[in-house]
Amino acid sequence: MNKKDIYILAIETSCDETSMAVVKNGNDVIALSIYTQIDTHKLYGGVVPEIASRMHTEKITLVLEDVLNKANMAVSDMDAIAVTYAPGLIGSLMVGIECAKTLSLIYNKPLIKVNHIAGHIYANNLTNKIIFPTLALVVSGGHTDLVLMKDNYDFKVLGSTLDDAIGEAYDKVARVLKEKYPGGPNIERLALQGKNSYNLPIPMQDDSYNFSFSGLKSSVINEVNKCKMQNKKINKKDLACSFQTAAITSIINKCEKAINDLKINNFIIAGGVSANKFLREKLILLCDKYNVNLSMPDFIYCTDNAAMIGAAAYPLYLKNIFSNIEDVQPESRTPLF
Ligand code: KG4
Ligand code: ZN
Fold this sequence. Notes:
Strand order of the largest sheet: 3-2-1-4-5
CATH class of the largest domain: Alpha Beta
Bound molecules: 5'-O-[(R)-(carboxyoxy)(hydroxy)phosphoryl]adenosine, zinc ion
Helix content: 40-55%
Strand content: 15-25%
Oligomer: single chain
Largest sheet: 5 strands, mixed
Distance between the termini: 36 Å
Number of strands: 10
Number of helices: 10
CATH topology of the largest domain: Nucleotidyltransferase, domain 5
CATH architecture of the largest domain: 2-Layer Sandwich
């Protein structure tokens, strides 16, 4: 029997991207629209929450119109409306949530609330299909976690960061090196042109699956201060390369330990830092070494976008996990795991 195709209209406004997508059967992106506010927040060195929510309000109807035009579909053609409810900036989340609720009410469509980090994980289904059991490395602005997934929405956290998340560390190092927001891609660009000449210490060379990046960040700050005191110019490219090498080596070591210990054959990565080419190259080498099947989202699906929210909503749709309007509220910190 041919199963009916399921179309989900997904909405993501948790930070500084206003995005909507139409996703078919959780893996086929029919249309994607992303309006990024980066150029505005760049002027302030980071996301300004009040400006972010105002800009979402200004753009959300235009993004809706754009995604429906691209899909050549109407809201009435959808099987459900999915929206990010957490974690994120409350004012930003509210704009997407109110839009989702309004569409759900007017068109009588079921509402699915999606955790943003689940979105990053399920972005993998837009490129490959997640094969369970799998190890998942979640590397984002707020997360650095190694997670074992035996099935959909079945998360066992093996280890997490004890302090800063990896994306946060990239962003803070960028600030120290006077690089513009968003820091991650700028540090990566600098690192590509530099050498690992500072030989910074690799964090957490212990037996756990945990991570830590604040000590490494302090080492970068120390190097910058040393140069200032000696009236020397810092070699930003080399320092960025040395930071990136130490940080990513630490992550790869933990991944290698988990692959060895758990003998899992599948590995996925998720979150904004999964766009980092150095990390991707090292993971390819690692997974080749152990003959592990590696899935990485396409670059466009690594950073915030609504297609990943549509992908993450699909397993919930199949299980009839819908929400009442009053149960969908923005939450700034609600963890997935
Ligand atoms: O996953 P994400 O949207 O954040 C959360 O949902 O928490 O990712 C944003 C983070 C930022 O810290 C940004 O600097 C980092 O991902 N990032 C990168 C790269 N692209 C984005 N970090 C390193 N290299 C990149 N190419
Ligand atoms: Zn994100």
